[in-house]
From TrEMBL:
The keyword Transmembrane applies. The chain crosses the membrane at residues 51-72, 122-145, 157-177, 232-254, 290-311. It is found in: Cell membrane. Belongs to the binding-protein-dependent transport system permease family. The keyword Membrane applies. It holds the Pfam family BPD_transp_1. Its main location: membrane. It is a multi-pass membrane protein. This is ABC transporter permease. PROSITE patterns: ABC_TM1.
Length: 320
């Protein structure tokens, strides 16, 4: 008669071994990769985009020129020597020297003025972008989330500012100041330029606040502050970043245009727009006095526009 106790013990050992083998096989199987976030996917796409790499290199160089202009020239941009012949063509072989781009009518180095003019242009562009993003983003977020009276009030306010031509309004505002410093120009442009960011943020918040995760957070008792800044803002920020990046170049152009018209930075400030204005009288006989500041302005604006296009393609799922 077979020993049933021994047979059952053997079966239990075999079953235990099968479980160990199965467990080892499961542990040996690689776990599925953790899903990447929108930011990680965007960064991966940006690194593969040559447009982004070219614009990033240009912006880094421009930032270095703006922060440490002394690394690129040792010539005082405000010091003029009438002995310098402004009719002389640029000495293209004299890299990073005072006469590399030639001289203006006052005998000042055009290359030095182009280098030092980068600081004011970049400062105005970045400063205005930060101000309009903070103020306009906050207004749009509150209007889109709360709706009702606040949405109507802020929407009508943005409509009023949209009815004011941007450059004309900036000219009127800046004409009231006698000492137009960088901060005054930044404030005037930000005062008139926040409406676009506000509308973009409002639309993104209205779309996001009805998402399931926001409804779930509200059902679990999350407060308004937590919902706004923890759940809605991170998911509504992508279109705002795109618009802000592209608008930065627009604000640089606006500052240069106002300086060209004599309503931007003060005359003693170094500005590409001011130098372009002074060079227009010599455009026939000495086009180099106009070419270099205008070329630097165009390269700067192009770099930020390319950056904005690359960021838009990376953050917009429809364009992938």
């Amino acid at each position: 008669m077979p020993d049933l106790t021994k047979t059952s013990t053997t079966d239990e050992k075999a079953a235990a071994q099968d479980e160990v083998v199965a467990g080892a096989a499961v542990s040996a199987t690689p776990a599925p990769g953790k899903p990447r976030s929108l930011g990680a996917d965007a960064w991966r796409d940006l690194r593969r985009n040559p447009l982004f790499m070219i614009s990033a290199v240009l912006i880094v160089v421009l930032a270095m020129v703006a922060l440490v202009p002394g690394l690129f020239t040792s010539t005082d941009p405000t010091s003029g020597d009438l002995a310098n012949d402004f009719l002389k063509p640029p000495e293209l072989g004299h890299f990073f020297q005072a006469d590399w781009f030639g001289f203006d009518r006052q005998g000042r180095s055009i290359y030095s003025r182009v280098v030092y003019g980068t600081r004011n242009s970049i400062l105005v562009g970045v400063g205005v972008t930060v101000l309009v993003t903070l103020f306009g983003g906050l207004c749009g977020m509150l209007a889109g989330y709360f709706g009702g009276f606040w949405d109507s009030l802020l929407s009508r306010l943005t409509d009023v500012f949209f009815g004011i031509p941007f450059l004309l309004g900036a000219m009127v505002v800046l004409n009231a100041f006698t000492n137009r410093t960088v901060w005054v120009v930044m404030g005037a442009l930000a005062f008139l330029g926040w409406t676009q960011i506000a509308r973009v943020m409002r639309g993104a918040v209205i779309t996001t606040k009805h998402a399931d995760y926001v409804v779930a957070a509200r059902a679990l008792g999350a407060g308004t502050k937590r919902i706004l800044f923890r759940h809605i803002l991170p998911n509504a920020l992508a279109p705002v970043i795109v618009v802000a990046t592209i608008s930065l170049g627009t604000y640089i152009v606006a500052e240069s245009t106002l300086s060209y018209l004599g309503l931007g930075l003060a005359d003693d400030a170094i500005s590409w727009g001011g130098d372009i204005s002074k060079a227009t009288q010599d455009i026939r006989n000495n086009p180099h006095t106009l070419f270099f500041p205008a070329g630097m302005l165009s390269i700067t604006v192009l770099a930020f526009i390319m950056m904005g296009d690359a960021v838009r393609e990376a953050l917009d799922p429809k364009l992938r």
